[in-house]
Design brief:
Layout lengths: L4 E5 L2 E5 L3 H18 L8 H12 L5 H14 L5 H15 L5 H10 L12 E3 L8 H23 L28 E4 L6 E4 L10 E6 L2 E6 L1 E2 L2 E2 L2 H16 L16 H11 L3 H11 L4 E5 L8 H10 L16 E6 L4 E5 L6 H15 L19 E2 L6 H20 E8 L4 H6 L4 H17 L5 E6 L8 E4 L4 H9 L9 H20 L5 H13 L11 H6 L4 E5 L7 E3 L8 E7 L4 E8 L7 H23 L4 H22 L31
Parallel strand pairs: 6-10, 10-11, 15-17, 17-19
Antiparallel strand pairs: 1-2, 3-12, 3-18, 4-5, 6-7, 7-13, 8-9, 11-12, 14-20, 15-16, 19-20
């Protein structure tokens, strides 16, 4: 009897007697049909978007600014005016394209952005701290990780990932899966004015299948398929040991070419054109640009290991003096394995959103604590060729460019003000007991923190998934609502004590309603972007609405926020998107919330420590308010009890630190309530 072959297609388990390779065309056809079955992204009406725009901006402008904006908006939306003409062009575009805003959005959010990718654009996922007792331990971890990547890639190649379904608000709808299939098949190519997202559409990977291993600022080609056989974990470890020895034995100074990818996009594009003059460099670039992913074997950073320092190391590698050159930021997935146990993944954000990074990372960490029987899938390859070191020819001109890139990264490292804080007084379970949305509640808390720090409300970005639609990415939830401002003002005004709870619920309800607007394709940011780009394509003079101060203020996202919940012990972090702003990523768990807050030292008004202090105080005050209104026990006493419990927990944890497991990957029970509010990146917003 023939053993059956098993595949998962669209969440269904398929068992048959045909090898999976023969099923791939059928699965690919199913995927295409499934994506086409999703509805197209709707196009909001012009009048609704303009009315919402005015409501979102009135309280963020002076009276004089708003009066001017109101007149400009009225003229733009007048019958027979410019707005109606541009709206008609978008209606035509929606008929012709799978997603009318996708190209506009991708260029505006990412590819037109000239800022350097590290900190400014690329988010990082920080894995649990590992306890490597010897150098071989980190290589074993890396081999195990690569094996998991190859397992996940097999699922992707077979189009066998179960379809995601919406959770949180308006749950149950199938979601577009297109982003997953760009994880290991895309590359961001720098350009002088605009980058290009190079995405391979075929489901069959070109030969040879390889990853790039970065070690001591050198790059090595690690073939993961040799003689039509995928390397098992033992073979991968053997190859990684060879790479480690080769990197350590290099006699000649090696130029840290990876530093070039950390520079501004225009500067990197110019440097790349210089590199391309030499055939040796062209071959090396080709191998990197076609690889599945990077695995970066980092030296110990020398820093004290804390959540904050590990987050910073993931974002920038510590700069040119540490592991900053041991990167290639144009690749979507760079897995970091530090000799000091600092591990995680850095992603280039243009191909996919944060949920894709989370799902992939969780799969890998769960794989790594799976049963040993899953670790070996193929017989060992008897003759393993040595991994190949990529070579570079550096002219004096290139040496100057490298110095310039190193200076830029050094300044970026010095400028980043990162603070990761675990708020342990309560988590999302307490918020749910108040019959409030945890995401909306935390967004209001962020508004309160900023108001207490700076005394005003500012334009805020929280992206919402639009994956209910074909080629859906994100739109913006405008969290700085008039209702949120009314609440945060009340929290600083003793006269309004009796109304605080009413105002809190009103702010949360408004936030929730806007979230629903965004995830159903009816928010304003993508629509306004489409109108602006339609005018540009028609070679019209830029309409006054897009030159107005209000539009510039509306797109200067001082608060760039994102909820990135996980079921595995890890957290996400990223930098601010404007010089005077904050990045605020949060991971709500049942009894605690992890916040990753970033700002820039160069701005005298921002301070991550101060923001976190105001955030913690605000969350405590909101809990006190809820408890008083519900007649619960004294809030201060409850906090003291929580802190006592936490102290006992820490003592218990400390007593077990002398006997850690290796690798140390912690997994929690899956949560059923992923919110639809996701976030991330550009001079716009994050996740």
């Amino acid at each position: 009897m023939i053993d059956p072959y098993i595949a998962v297609v669209g969440g269904a388990l398929i068992v048959c007697n045909i090898p999976l390779a023969f099923l791939e065309p059928t699965i690919a056809n199913w995927m295409e049909e499934n994506m086409n079955a999703l509805p197209k992204l709707p196009l909001p009406s012009l009048s609704e978007t303009l009315d919402t725009y005015l409501r979102c901006m009135k309280h963020l402008l002076t009276e004089e600014q708003f009066n001017k904006t109101q007149n400009i908006v009225k003229q733009f939306g007048a019958p027979g005016g410019v707005g109606e003409l541009l709206q008609s062009k978008l209606v035509e575009r929606r008929e012709k394209k799978a997603n009318w805003v996708y190209d506009y959005w991708l260029n505006d959010m990412y590819l037109n952005n000239r800022l350097a990718l590290p900190v400014n654009s690329s988010p990082a996922m920080v894995f649990p701290q590992q306890n490597f007792k010897a150098p071989i331990d980190s290589l074993r971890f890396a081999a195990h990780l690569i094996s998991g990547v190859l397992e996940y890639k097999t699922l992707l190649d077979a189009r066998a990932l179960p379809v995601d379904y919406a959770r949180g608000q308006l749950s149950g709808k199938p979601l577009c899966m297109e982003q997953y299939y760009r994880l290991f098949t895309s590359y961001r190519l720098p350009g002088p004015d605009r980058d290009t997202l190079v995405a391979q559409e075929s489901s069959v990977m070109p030969e040879p299948e390889h990853i790039i291993v970065a070690c001591k600022n050198q790059f090595f080609v690690l073939d993961v398929v040799i003689n039509f056989r995928r390397l098992n974990e033992k073979d991968l470890l053997t190859q990684l040991e060879k790479i480690s020895k080769m990197a350590s034995s290099e006699d000649e100074p090696v130029p840290p070419i990876g530093l070039l990818t950390s520079d501004g996009r225009t500067e990197w594009a110019e440097a790349r054109s210089v590199l391309m003059r030499e055939s040796t460099n062209r071959d090396s670039l080709d191998m990197i640009e076609r690889c599945l992913c990077l695995v970066c074997l980092d030296d110990a950073s020398g820093s004290e290991q804390s959540d904050t320092t590990r987050a910073a190391m993931m974002l920038h590698g510590g700069g040119p003096s540490k592991n900053g050159g041991n990167r290639w930021y144009d690749k979507p997935m760079q897995f970091i394995v530090g000799a000091d146990g600092c591990c995680g993944v850095v992603c280039e954000h243009s191909p996919f959103e944060g949920i894709v990074l989370v799902q992939c990372s969780e799969y890998l960490l769960k794989y790594m604590i799976g049963s040993p029987s899953k670790l070996v899938r193929a017989a060992s390859v008897s003759e393993l060729p040595a991994p190949r070191r990529l070579r570079w020819k550096c002219s004096p001109e290139m040496q100057k460019l490298l110095i310039s890139s190193a200076d830029g990264l050094h300044r970026l490292v010095k400028n980043l003000d990162m603070n990761v804080h675990t708020f342990s007084d309560y988590g999302k379970e307490f918020i749910k007991k108040q019959k409030m949305s945890p995401d909306a509640y935390i967004q209001v808390a962020l508004q309160l923190a900023y108001y207490r720090c700076h005394g005003r409300a500012v334009s805020t970005y929280e992206s919402a998934s639009t994956r209910r639609f074909q080629q859906g990415r994100v739109d913006n939830i405008r969290s700085a609502t008039p209702e949120a401002l009314a609440f945060v003002r009340a929290m600083t005004d003793m006269k309004l004590t009796s109304r605080k709870m009413e105002l809190l619920r009103c702010a949360i309800n408004t936030q929730t309603k806007y979230t629903v607007m965004a995830i159903t394709g009816m928010a304003i940011d993508n629509h306004l972007l489409g109108l602006r780009e339609a005018a540009r394509e028609m070679k019209m003079e830029k309409p006054e609405i897009f030159k107005d101060d209000a539009y510039l203020i509306s797109n200067h996202f001082i608060l760039s926020t994102s909820q990135v919940p996980t079921t595995v012990e890890m957290f996400c972090c990223y930098g601010p998107v404007v010089p005077d702003g904050y990045g605020a990523c949060y991971n709500p768990q049942s009894d605690h919330i992890i916040f990753s807050v970033s700002s820039f030292h160069e701005n005298p008004q921002t301070c991550s420590v101060k923001f976190v202090k105001c955030l913690v105080q605000g969350l405590q005050d909101m809990m006190d308010l809820c408890n008083r209104c519900n007649g619960d026990p004294d809030p201060a006493e409850q906090r003291r009890n929580n802190q006592t419990t936490e102290t006992k927990g820490k003592t218990s944890q400390d007593s077990t630190k002398s006997q850690p497991t290796n690798p140390q990957v912690l997994v929690k029970s899956p949560e059923p309530s992923f919110t639809e509010a996701r976030t991330r990146t550009s001079a716009k917003g994050k996740f």
